[in-house]
Amino acid sequence: MTTITIALTAHDVARCVEMGDVRNSRHAPGSTRFGQGDARAVRDDRLGVVGEFAVAKHYRLDWPSPQDLQSPDGDVGRFEVRATTRQAGRLILHDDDVPERAYILARVTRDPADGSARVVLVGYYKPWWGLRANWWEEHRQGGGCYFVPNLCLQSMPRRLAS
Fold first, then answer.
1. Is the pLDDT of residue 128 over 70?
2. Sheet of strand 79-84: strand arrangement
3. Residue 32 pLDDT > 70, yes or no?
4. Which of 14, 28, 118, 123 is 20 to 30 Å from the Cα of 85, by its Cα?
5. Residues 6+ apart with CB under 8 A from 160
6. What is the pTM for the complete model shown?
7. Which domains does the chain have, with CATH numbers?
8. Tens of pLDDT along 140-161?
């Protein structure tokens, strides 16, 4: 599988953290997503923005969308981005994800020495290709989700078709 690695500067990461905080502030007070507590939701919003920024930077896409940080058209262009810091992390999909949209797995590694980050775009998957029952895992709170094995992801294209 072909992956893509994007280097982000400490300035890029700091900008993403700020945008993640803005995104998080737009959630209803006291609300949690998928059973997460407030601190985890803030961390996940920041991480998600780092992944989205990396996709936008590599493919030279407008981001965030002019309308909002939560565009109904996709996180970045027509793509959804799911970010993780886990080196063995898998793409997480939910029952209500848009079936025909491409979901990209972005693996983020921060350098604590200088604040920069390395983002690896591992691959992508579209839910309409089929979600297998054995990918489903229950959570303690908030239901469950599908963990798509990395071997089932499609390689990331170096460039997008015009």
1. yes
2. 4-8, 117-125, 102-110, 79-84
3. no
4. 28
5. 59
6. 0.88
7. 4-152 (3.40.600)
8. 666 789 999 999 999 999 887 6
Residue 8 one-letter amino acid: L
Q: What is the DSSP string of the chain?
A: ---EEEEE-HHHHHHHHHHHHHHHHTSPTT--STT--HHHHHHHHHHHHHHHHHHHHHHT---S-SS-SS-TT-SBTTEEEEEES-TT--EEE-TTS-TTSEEEEEEEEE-TTTS-EEEEEEEEE-GGG---GGGEEE-SSS-EEEEE-GGGSBPPPSS---
| Separation between Cα atoms, residue 59 and residue 56, nearest integer Å | 5
How many C-beta atoms surround the C-beta of residue 23 within 10 A? Answer: 21
**Cβ neighbours of residue 129 under 8 Å, at least 6 residues apart?**
none
pLDDT at 150: 95
Residues in the chain: 162
Q: Which structure tokens are listed for 69?
A: 């940080």
Tokens in use for 25? 């502030």
CA distance 43 to 82: 13
User: For residue range 85-111, what is the model confidence (pLDDT) as tens digits?
Assistant: 999 999 999 989 999 999 999 999 999
Amino acid at 1: M
